[in-house]
Design goal:
The complex is a heterotrimer. By secondary structure, chain A is mainly α. Helices cover 71% and strands 3% of the residues of chain A. By secondary structure, chain B is of the alpha/beta class. Chain B is 37% helix and 24% strand. In chain B, the strands form 2 sheets. In chain B, strands 6-7-8-3-9-10 form a 6-stranded mixed beta sheet, sandwiched between helices. Chain C has a domain of 206 residues. In chain C, helix 7 crosses helix 9. Chains in contact: A-C, B-C. The interface between B and C is medium-sized, with 31 and 20 residues.
């Protein structure tokens, strides 16, 4: 197939087209498959971006590595599942409810549990969030069994076909929603007073030896927002992702890789890191057999930790 | 042969010259006072000598051998000990164990290590507190502990970083006596201090650092009357009587 | 001292030894199994503790060593008929090599705290993925160890009592190693590294070498545990050997019982073991449900008993 066929007259499109063609030839695979892989990777990357950026928020503000982030996403997904079944509505409509619910959960966890040990050694915080993750994931296992569940959608399902490439509608919506949320979060942090207060608190850690109630509440709000965002990501992927108690685990590890790659504490690092990882994972899926698709991700993770712990855009010294 | 010889030593952090082509020597058995305003590079100089920071250019020779590229524990084994500006004891270990860990630098036998630790604690005056957790000590006691730990490695050269800071006059007097006793044992010492009275009293010579450069060196009286020093550091009101 | 001059402590140890030897013969099979599991995780926990507790480097990926030991001895037995006892030592050596690899990389680049923990997790996951995709390791189906009946020389027996004594001896061995490390130069050096690495360097501790030593010993011992597991359950697969859950089960006991103490891991094991069994009995069903309780306990311990159960008991003793 001639390069000109695909993207028509658009010049940048033609450049992309040529690059894809070259890459496909190199690897010896169908350009279609390669292009498709890049697209699905990019779409998923958008979702990863929301997960990573919210994880990054929690780390940036409180220096907490939140192992329970995946569990929050899982809870958001189950929440959406039950709400959409009981109220017989499209899962997208449960977005606000699941976000509010997880905000409360996050707030309470930070306020009641994490705040108590926030002055202590770092590894304690890691263990605490791990304990919370263990508890939540296995509670879900106990309550709802490991059986995979799926939300059935009839509207806004299906796919669009453009130039022989398939764009799955739910994935596009998830991508769009995730990007919107990410942007909203960014605007919140940079333009609103509360957002600025949260960022101010994160800059000034050396001052307080005893954290006052003011700081405790801000931490809890930040944590709640992080949880709400990742729950939103969960809600948006329910139309095309199986729901099971351990679904969060993969996401949280991927999010760690992204945040470390992009640079702990860097918002845009997490964002672009997510897109890169999304595409890398998707390409890995096409090029490598079986579950080996995660090998490049873990390898990138280790290499980043070893060689450039600040990540690609990191500001804060690790 | 001088004990320590530093030639053209430089270190910069992202464009800022923390230590700028510093050259000086320290003779064996002398106490060299190192003074200068905050941020003048004194602690950075200590970090460079003790191996905690890699240098950019220049050389560091101790007893004729280069220290460049060595890791801190290797430099300690060569005979250079240091204290930290913010004391770093091992908080959850007993005072005894704090010192003993350092004593093991020179020997493996447990009973002997215990004995040596006890005598070192006696020397600095902490023997009564030997079974207390290091984290529960007062600031003065922690400084004594840090000194004991340093001495346990049997150093020939000591880098003392603001060892008097935060102590009351009585504690300071005790510390000064300790430092003098150590020098009498044949140890060469560089002392970083901010309290002028102390520096002038115990130092044989003084080095003045400002913005990473040496602006004066010599005996205490000389330095105190040096116009550059008075302008940039001491202020016009200071008089050494 | 009791009246006839024999110290009470001796009675205690004698009694304990007697009980340990007689117990498996007196208890029904299920309880022997529970005891074996308690000693097993106590063994693994103590091995982990050498790196995590003494040296202060928390590893979240100890399953890597565990799995390598399990697969090494199993593959040697299944493919070349090498006795699992020899395979165990082989596995231990491989565990040591793995520790050398992971340790050299991580410590050379100065990974500490949570970053080291995450790196070890990544290594374990890599091994899991590799074993999941290699034919040689049986992929997802894992490997079944062929039944040999009563064959102690092939590390197999139909009665649990055999396994009980093996793990009891292994545990006593690892306890001895832990005590030997704890008292003396290595113990002081590791403690110094744990408390403040910079300070340790300043007093002449080669922090890189000693951390490496800790991971070598820990890796070796943990790998031996992997072989025991393989021979006891006679089946291994990637998730059970290299999985995150396994890593978590390994470090949970020391943390609950008391990190950095000699007896912390076994205390933690005596608490978590029966608790896990009871939970599984009551809540039944799905694999991993007991982890819910473990998670809650972990949260509780971190907040209320940061020095673990042993630390809490010690502080109670001090008050008297």
């Amino acid at each position: 197939m001639l390069p000109a066929d695909r993207f028509g007259r658009c010049p940048s499109g033609k450049i992309v087209n040529d690059l894809v063609w070259l890459a496909a030839e190199r690897v010896g695979m169908d350009t279609n498959i390669l292009a498709q892989a890049i697209i699905s990777g990019l779409l998923m990357g958008g979702v990863y971006a929301l997960v990573a950026v919210s994880l990054n928020l929690i780390f940036g503000v409180m220096k907490i590595i939140n192992f329970a982030h995946g569990a929050f996403m899982m809870l958001g997904m189950y929440f959406t599942y039950w709400v959409s079944i009981f109220l017989d509505i499209h899962p997208y409509f449960s977005l606000l409810i699941s976000m509010c619910a997880l905000f409360v959960v996050g707030f309470l966890i930070q306020y009641g549990l994490i705040n108590r040990i926030i002055e202590g050694p770092e590894h304690n915080q890691l263990l605490l969030t791990l304990g919370i993750a263990l508890f939540l994931e296995n509670l879900a296992l106990f309550l709802w069994s490991p059986n995979y569940r799926m939300v059935q959608v009839t509207t806004l399902a299906g796919a669009m076909h453009i130039h022989k490439l398939m764009f799955s509608t739910p994935r596009m919506i998830a991508f769009g929603a995730a990007l919107t949320m990410t942007l909203l979060l960014y605007l919140f942090l940079t333009k609103t007073d509360s957002g600025k207060a949260i960022r101010a608190i994160s800059q000034d850690r050396e001052g307080a030896h005893v954290i006052g109630i003011h700081r405790k509440i801000i931490y809890s709000v930040a944590f709640g927002i992080g949880a709400a965002c990742v729950a939103a990501a969960g809600t948006m992927i329910t139309p095309f992702f199986y729901i099971t108690p351990t679904v969060g685990m993969v996401f949280v590890i991927t999010a760690f890789v992204i945040v470390v790659l992009g640079g702990l504490g860097s918002f845009w690092g997490a964002f672009f890191g997510a897109l890169i990882v999304g595409i890398a994972e998707s390409l890995g899926e096409v090029l490598l057999p079986g579950s080996l698709k995660q090998v490049p991700i873990y390898s990138i993770f280790i290499l980043t930790l070893l060689l450039r712990p600040k990540g690609l855009f990191g500001k804060k010294h690790v | 042969m001088p004990s320590l010889k530093i030639e053209n030593l430089s270190k910069s952090f992202g464009g800022l010259m923390a230590v700028n082509h510093v050259t000086f020597e320290v003779a064996g058995g002398e106490i060299l006072g190192l003074i200068g305003p905050n941020g003048s590079g004194k602690t950075t100089l200590f970090n460079l000598i003790s191996g905690f920071l890699p240098h950019d250019t220049g050389s560091i020779y101790f007893e004729g051998e280069s220290l460049v590229g060595l890791k801190p524990h290797q430099i300690c084994k060569r005979g250079i000990g240091r204290t930290f500006q913010i004391v770093k004891p091992f908080p959850h270990l007993s005072v005894m164990r704090n010192v003993r860990a350092a004593v093991f630098n020179r020997g493996k036998e447990i009973k002997q290590a215990n004995r040596q630790s006890e005598s070192l604690l006696e020397f600095v005056g902490l023997w009564l507190k030997r079974n207390e957790l290091a984290g529960s000590l007062t600031l003065a006691e922690r400084k004594q502990l840090e000194l004991a730990r340093c001495l346990a490695t049997q150093p020939k050269f000591l880098l003392l970083d603001e060892v008097m800071a935060g102590l009351n006059p009585v504690e300071q007097k005790q510390m000064i006596e300790l430092v003098i006793k150590i020098r009498e044992g044949g140890v060469t010492i560089i002392v970083i201090e901010h309290t002028m009275r102390i520096v002038m009293t115990i130092s044989d010579r003084i080095l003045v650092l400002c913005f990473g450069e040496i602006i004066a060196q010599g005996g205490p009286r000389e330095v105190a009357q040096d116009p550059d020093v008075i302008k940039s550091y001491l202020g016009e009101k200071y008089r050494f009587v | 001292m009791s009246r006839n001059g024999i110290p009470k402590v001796l009675f205690f140890w004698f009694g304990l030894t007697l009980i340990s030897i007689l117990l498996p013969f007196l208890l029904p099979s299920y309880f022997v199994h529970v005891l074996i599991m308690i000693l097993f995780y106590g063994y693994l926990g103590t091995s982990w503790n050498i790196l995590g507790g003494y040296a202060g480097q928390f590893s979240f990926g100890h399953a890597a060593f565990f799995g390598i030991g399990a697969y090494a001895s199993t593959l040697a037995f299944v493919n070349w008929n090498i006795s699992p006892w020899i395979g165990m030592v082989l596995g231990g050596l491989l565990g040591m090599l793995l520790g050398l690899l992971i340790g050299s990389l991580c410590f050379h680049y100065g990974l500490r705290g949570p970053y080291f923990a995450l790196a070890t997790l990544a290594f374990a996951e890599l091994l899991r993925l590799i074993s999941l995709n290699l034919d040689v390791t049986g992929k997802a189906m894992g490997i079944l160890i062929p039944l040999k009946g009563n064959a102690p020389l092939s590390f197999q027996h139909e009665s649990k009592i055999f396994y009980y004594f093996v793990i009891l001896l292994m545990f006593i061995g690892v306890l001895w190693v832990a005590r030997w490390i704890d008292t003396g130069k290595i113990g002081d050096y590791l403690a110094a590294i744990r408390e403040d690495e910079d300070s340790a360097e300043a007093i002449g501790v080669n922090t890189f070498s000693y951390k490496l030593l800790a991971i070598l010993i820990s890796g070796f011992l943990t790998a031996l545990g992997g072989t025991f597991y393989a021979q006891y359950f006679l089946y291994i697969d990637p998730p059970v050997t290299f999985g995150v859950d396994t890593s978590i089960e390994i470090f949970l006991r020391p943390i609950v019982g008391g990190v950095g103490t000699v007896y912390g891991p076994i205390i933690g094991s005596f608490v978590l073991g029966p608790l896990g069994e009871v939970t599984r009995g009551i809540l039944g069903g799905y694999h991993g449900v007991h982890l819910m309780i473990y998670g809650a306990i972990l949260v509780g311990v971190i907040i209320f008993l940061p020095n673990g159960i042993y630390g809490w008991l010690s502080s109670l003793k001090k008050k008297h």
